[in-house]
Amino acid sequence: MLRREFLRAAATVGVVASALPSNLQAENAKSDVKPKLQFNSDGTFKIVQITDTHYRNDKDFAFESVKLIAETIAAEKPQLVVYTGDIVVGGDIYKGWDDILSPCIEGATAWAVAIKTSLISG
Q1: Where are the domains of the chain?
Q2: Strands 110-116 and 13-15
Q3: Contact 75, 109 (CB under 8 A)
Q4: What b/e readout covers 66-96, taking b as 16+ CB neighbours within 10 angstroms?
Q5: Among 6, 14, 46, 84, which is disulfide-ready with 78 (CB 3.0 to 4.6 Å)?
Q6: First to last CA, the chain
Q7: Residue pLDDT, tens place only, 92-103
């Protein structure tokens, strides 16, 4: 891939809170606990990626998904959790995002959502 193509593609991938429902932005903004991104004392920085949960809070497996995310965060103790792919795909989408992000918000773990928009040709 040429540098120009890479930069064009990279520009279409954003880590954006603005794409999330406004109630999540407001909840995160009013929290007194603000996670700080910093390296561990040994110079490491751990990122946990959560991808393609296909979360639907109207399905039986929804509770299990959130539980596994919380267990992963507790075990790995990352500095950042990045949600990618098809995360919340049905049901009450606002509630779904509240549910799926709750392990990060409750544990004061920094999080981001990476979305991909369509590529611009030219």
Answers
A1: 3-116
A2: antiparallel
A3: no
A4: beebeeebeeeebbbbbbbeebbeeeeeeeb
A5: 46
A6: 15
A7: 888 899 999 999
Q: Are 54 and 89 in contact (CB under 8 A)?
A: yes
Q: In a 10 Å sphere around its CB, with 0-12 CB exposed, 13-18 middle and 19+ buried, how is residue 105 labelled?
A: middle
Which residue carries 């109630």 as its tokens?
23
Look up the pTM and report it: 0.67
Residue with tokens 């991104």: 37
Distance CA 115, CA 62 (A): 22
